[in-house]
Inverse folding.
């Protein structure tokens, strides 16, 4: 699950008991390109499943046209690792208190979307590729999420 | 393996037969922070193992001091997903011809470090945490690689 845990209150500083926000560095160190857009049925964090279900709905990953050739050969793989940018998540919490557990925990010890680099990793099942659109099962992210990368799942890569 | 496949020739444009470089977009869409540094025995791509070995040498992930609190509770997990930035890799190839196979393939169908967003994902075994240093097995990256994220491996996360 990459979403529901960080459904921070909108009021005040948005911090739950025990949560700690740190100062983010004054500048970033490298830049990422958004390579496409992920389309899912979920419009709010509350609607997102806690984690991707391999039998869940088919979602669409639309790769931007300049990267079309980079898809060559991807259809030979059934399990694909998808990296994406959790664009709605705040980045400054070092300690978080997920609603689900109520236990205050470090951001690196959670898979919450709230983290200094809001990069998610999901492994999905490829159903089909049509042009620059991948149809996949197993995602749990918001509709409109920016795509960062696609790669064959390591477990499925020849040694 | 995240490295040896993209050991492009230094001469000319560095392209092997069949490889195609695209124009990168004029600007990036979001920025990442380097959160620490990974120390391994490997100083060149040629030295890096093809993929991380769970019985390989212990490597050190040194988290930068501002993120110390974010490690709270991470020691409860044995398998940790590490995201890092492959800072030496070119980003503009859409088709690549790995030396190992000689088959020209799309960048998204390879786990090569050469990709528009050079973000790697490895799952490691946590040996110990001392202060802000994690001792882990299973990495395959260059010494000095910038750290992007740490999270419990999904397989190990309670449902």
């Amino acid at each position: 699950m990459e979403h529901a845990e960080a459904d921070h209150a909108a009021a005040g500083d948005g911090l739950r008991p025990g949560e700690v926000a740190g100062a983010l560095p004054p500048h970033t160190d490298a830049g990422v390109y958004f390579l496409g857009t992920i389309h899912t049925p979920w419009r709010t964090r509350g609607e997102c499943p806690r984690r991707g279900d391999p039998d869940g709905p088919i979602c669409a990953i639309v790769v931007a046209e300049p990267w079309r050739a980079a898809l060559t050969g991807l259809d030979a793989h059934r399990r694909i690792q998808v990296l994406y940018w959790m664009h709605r998540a705040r980045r400054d919490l070092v300690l978080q208190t997920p609603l689900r557990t109520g236990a205050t925990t470090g951001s690196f010890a959670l898979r919450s979307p709230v983290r200094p680099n809001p990069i998610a990793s999901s492994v999905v099942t490829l159903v089909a590729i049509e042009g620059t659109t991948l149809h996949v099962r197993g995602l749990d992210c918001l509709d409109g999420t920016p795509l960062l990368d696609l790669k064959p799942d390591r477990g499925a890569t020849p040694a």
Q: What stands out?
A: DSSP finds no helices and ten strands in chain A. Chain A touches chain B through 58 residues (CB under 8 Å). Confidence is low (pLDDT under 50) at residues 1-11 of chain A. Residues 56 and 108 of chain A are 27 Å apart (CA to CA).
